[in-house]
């Protein structure tokens, strides 16, 4: 889109401000809507904030996991490589709902009584592990796309392996991986709805409750869908602008 | 500039062997280079010229034999490696500029990270070097925006920013369009008179003859001739060298 190309920095700021305004201001116009939406406006707003918070927490942790496991897959140390392969294979081969239920029901059994984790944390952990596995492949491809000659040049200049990674490999591989990572983040907005299964009161759960009380599923689910569309649009606009912003080195 | 007998030895390679799997790429290479000497390295493709150059800053680790740079032995000791890489700069056939960084950042990165130079100082130095290679007005551009010849001159400036005692060139003009070869050779010619030690793998026989103090002819992983350019071009000792020269001349 042209307006993103021309002013990526402003689009990013705009999308972020828009998202914040939407999350904290949506209750005002919604409360003017007819029943059953009007009286549930605050619930919808709160549910949206939980959905976005879950997405942001799981999304950021997922990027960190993706970078670590993506590096691990390229590691010269075989056991670490096998571990990362196993992780990706396990997560991608099982349903997300099962992973969420597993973290919620099974993990507390390994923890001492005093160290119980909230439903929200369980959902965040499961979602982070899930999106992390998908990110791993993107990061790995990104790292492989960095020309080996640039790594050699950095090493020849005396940069340490860590400096070479942080200054040369990571920024360039993230630029390559970004479209795919952004895709995963947009999916995560929607995937976070599965957290309703472990009674996290996010957007889908709010919709479910409101329709159960009002017996009016159609307006309730239409409202829920509209909110999701606005959220995913904000996220994709944000990441598209970020992509353009980071693209400077390739611009002619 | 002919190296005098009293000049200090800066590189000492003794009986260096290197295998790639079962392939014997360097078969006991011995040579010493004194400070300020300009050496051209020539030889047929696959004869081990690049491999030899790359063992000198350990982009390839040699199997047996010893290499000393400025008195420091090149081995698995990372302190030695750091010390040596600060003293030895390298210019590659494919430039290997960092494509996500501006020309200025390409040059300032290593001095700031490795020599801990402050930003203002590093930038002043980078601008002076860019001026010296005739690119004073290109500092804020990105590598893709420059021609091959300009990129290679930036790569030379980047190597010089670390104040190396030795500069290694691996076919610095082979990837360039013919009309750009001279701008790079011009910079190298100017450098040759500054007292920096240069080892240049090159196919530019005119340059070797005019600028180098010494000429090394590689063949099948050994140094077959180690002489002056004058001697090599007028009166080579070995049949292989004669064949090589005939082929090169035929190419013109
Ligand atoms: N990383 C590597 N793995 C396996 N073989 C290699 C590797 N690097 C070089 N070789 C082999 O070692 C031999 C010497 O290679 P080198 O690059 O030193 O030759 P060169 O003299 O620089 O040739 P050219 O003029 O083509 O650049 C070649 O036969 C090459 O195939
Ligand atoms: Mg070569």
Largest interface: A-B, 24 and 28 residues
- The CATH class name of chain A reads Mainly Alpha
Count of DSSP strands of chain A: 0
Percentage of residues in DSSP E strands of chain B: 25-35%
Mean pLDDT rating of chain B: 93
* Distance N to C terminus of chain B: 27 Å
Sheet with most strands of chain B: 6 strands, mixed
- Rg of chain A computed from alpha carbons, rounded to a whole number of angstroms: 21 Å
Q: What is the helical fraction of chain A, as a range of percent?
A: over 70%
Q: Sheet with the most strands of chain A?
A: none
The CATH superfamily of chain A is MetI-like
CATH fold name of chain A, please? MetI-like fold
Return the CATH architecture of chain A: Orthogonal Bundle
For the terminal residues of chain A, how far apart are their CA atoms? 18 Å
Query: How many helices of chain A does DSSP assign?
Result: 12
Report on this model:
The complex is a heterodimer of chains A (252) and B (252). Chain A is mainly alpha-helical and 252 residues long. Chain A has one domain (10-23, 43-245): MetI-like (MetI-like fold). Chain A is built from twelve helices and no strands. In chain A, helix 4 crosses helix 8. The longest helix of chain A has 33 residues, at 41-73. Chain A starts with a helix and ends in a 6-residue tail after the last helix. Chain B is of the alpha/beta class. Chain B contains nine helices and ten strands. In chain B, strand 9 (214-219) and strand 10 (222-227) form a beta hairpin. In chain B, helix 3 (103-113) packs across helix 4 (119-132), helix 3 (103-113) packs parallel to helix 5 (148-160) and helix 5 (148-160) packs parallel to helix 6. The radius of gyration of chain B is 18 Å and the shape is globular. In chain B, 46% of the residues are buried. The model of chain B has no long low-confidence stretch (mean pLDDT 93). The interface between A and B is medium-sized, with 24 and 28 residues.
